[in-house]
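Retro notes, structure queue

What went well: the backlog is down to a handful. What didn't: a couple of records were mislabeled last round, so from now on we paste the full input next to the output in the thread. Example, using Guanylate kinase from Flexivirga caeni:
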Amino acid sequence: MLAGPTAVGKGTVSAYIREHYPEVWLSVSATTRPPRPGEIDGKHYHFITQERFDAMVADGEFLEHAVVHGRASYGTPRGPVLQAAAEGKLPLLEIDLQGARQVREQLPGAYFVFLAPPSWDELVRRLVGRGTESEAEREVRLATARRELAAQAEFDTTIVNDDVRRAAEELVHLMQQHICVVSDGARADEQPPTD
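Corresponding output:
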């Protein structure tokens, strides 16, 4: 599981992994927010209505779900993740802090990685540089980011996203180690990767 504050580059790292590591299966979340420029339905997110989202929640179809930044709903469909894991793939969920906490309750053996910015100033620069939010939305996201950064200790390890390629390689390496630990019959929470 990969989580971190808004604008830290979770999507960029995931996109690099998608392009360079075909053995990694990336979960596609559902969201009620509209697509950003360049986002493709079914590839980046499943863009659905709030009514459909609520029905999926009621039917227990999400591994995790949350309202993010007080605006849009996001969720990880349960079935595809469990199927990918059962097939021996390396499943990667790119989720927010709330989602990571829910997944930890449901999948306690999962490995949780926090993606951190090199500095607070760099995080602000990235968020402003995206140009996808209004000033009011940026303020909400920055307040959320402060809370998310404070939760870093809840994760199994932290990767600093100072270089996308390096961060992606480190993440895939940790995933491969974790799968080996689990496949050797040990519980993941007893023997985390030591790298």
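Agreed that this is the format going forward. Reviewer comment attached to the example: The chain has one domain: 2-183.
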